[in-house]
Backbone:
């Protein structure tokens, strides 16, 4: 863990409020993006799923075509045997041989009928799967077009704020380095649990910017002295005096306007 340099309580308060202003601005930038990043992620996941389904359907069609080829081979073999048996029947010596060959011929004819039936079934399945393949491809094309527009929209938004966001993140790291680790952890914890992510607020007209409960005059004097970290007993937020807040707000605005 990096060692924080020694700073006064006032410097910590200023750094905390600066960090809050920066984080709030980053929150604003992210809110402009809205649900776009999640929508893009959902579309990408859906396209991956559709492509996987398409690959499975293609495999099924290849497998069915293989089955058809195999059944055609069965038909060819059966017809060859039927032809062979027809020749043999011309030379039979008794009824027993004739009947035996007849049964074999009937069996092969049944094999042909069954194979032809299976081929028709396989072809029907292929036709059904090809319809699903066509609709799946159309769906993929639609989703890819939607993804393209969403990505372009997000890129436009990020392009407008990329430079500012990079500066904000750089300054965020600088200010965080001025804050004790335990205080930084507390700041992040408060930010994650309070409305609007405001963990550090200024006193405004004698009340906390976070809870709007009136702060006793003596407590206000303590906060204005900037000698210790004071939190609002109602909201848990870290409090700073209005003058410090105004000074830091102007400083951050100047920094961002350069």
Residues:
């Amino acid at each position: 863990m990096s060692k924080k340099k020694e700073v006064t309580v006032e410097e910590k308060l200023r750094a905390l409020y600066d960090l809050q202003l920066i984080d709030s601005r980053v929150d604003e930038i992210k809110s402009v993006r809205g649900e776009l990043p999640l929508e893009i992620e959902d579309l990408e996941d859906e396209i991956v799923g559709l492509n996987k389904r398409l690959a499975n359907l293609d495999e099924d069609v290849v497998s069915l075509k293989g089955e058809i080829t195999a059944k055609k081979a069965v038909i060819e073999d059966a017809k060859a045997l039927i032809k062979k048996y027809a020749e043999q029947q011309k030379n039979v010596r008794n009824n027993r041989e004739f009947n035996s060959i007849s049964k074999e011929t009937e069996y092969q004819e049944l094999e042909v009928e069954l194979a032809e039936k299976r081929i028709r079934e396989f072809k029907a399945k292929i036709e059904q799967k090809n319809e699903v393949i066509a609709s799946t491809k159309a769906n993929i094309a639609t989703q890819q077009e939607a993804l393209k527009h969403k990505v372009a929209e997000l890129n436009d938004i990020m392009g407008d704020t990329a430079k500012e966001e990079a500066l904000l993140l750089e300054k965020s790291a600088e200010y965080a380095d001025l804050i004790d680790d335990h205080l930084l952890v507390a700041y992040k914890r408060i930010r994650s649990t309070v409305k609007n992510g405001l963990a550090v607020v200024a006193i405004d007209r004698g009340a906390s910017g976070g809870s709007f409960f009136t702060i006793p005059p003596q407590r206000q004097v303590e906060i204005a002295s900037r000698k210790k970290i004071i939190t609002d007993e109602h909201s848990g937020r870290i409090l700073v005096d209005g003058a410090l807040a105004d000074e830091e707000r102007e400083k951050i605005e100047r920094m961002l306007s350069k």
Observations:
- The domain at 36-160 is CATH 1.10.287.1490 (Helix Hairpins).
